[in-house]
Design goal:
1 helix; Immunoglobulin-like; 2 domains; three-stranded antiparallel β-sheet; alpha+beta; six-stranded antiparallel β-sheet; about 20% helix
């Protein structure tokens, strides 16, 4: 009888230490690759949604009520996860109501928003004056990050 054998003739000596080390290294490499790909997806999703060169923003002074105009220059924008926040010269912060926007906009599309909400989500009548500076921030709500900040002059 060999050492490490049972009477039934089955060898229970186990896996060779060299094979065990190779398997552990292979599993570690695969797991680290999966974790890297998962973590890197967070940094690319927010940046690819919108960038500064892909849209033009203006605010039109209109007697019937001012409106925020967003023109898409290139690419696609998915509005379902976005919010537009305006900070007026006097410090008032209002939200553009994007609920009426299409889910997706493509190059050449123009979104006109004339409905605004204050901090308590009540309707807000935005009436800027020509020449007034307004800071417009586009926020990706899923990523909780500001995608675009633009200083816009009411025209």
């Amino acid at each position: 009888m060999h050492k490490g054998s049972d009477p039934g003739g089955i060898d229970d000596g186990g896996v060779s230490p060299v094979i065990a080390v190779i398997l552990m290294v292979a599993i570690t490499v695969v797991l680290s690759g999966v974790v890297f790909l998962w973590a890197s997806s967070f940094s690319t999703e927010a940046g690819s949604a919108i960038d500064l060169s892909r849209m033009e923003i203006s605010i039109k002074d209109d007697p019937a009520g001012d409106r925020l105009v967003i023109s898409i220059i290139s690419g696609d924008v998915i509005w379902g996860s976005m919010s537009a926040i305006l900070t007026l010269e006097d410090g008032t912060v209002i939200n553009a109501d994007l609920s009426a926007c299409p889910q997706r906009s493509s190059a050449g599309d123009e979104i006109q928003i004339s409905s605004f909400l204050d901090g308590s989500r009540a309707s807000y009548s935005f009436d800027g004056s020509k020449g007034e500076h307004v800071e417009v921030r586009i926020v990706n709500l899923e990523m909780n990050s500001v995608i675009l900040i633009r200083d816009v002059i009411v025209s």
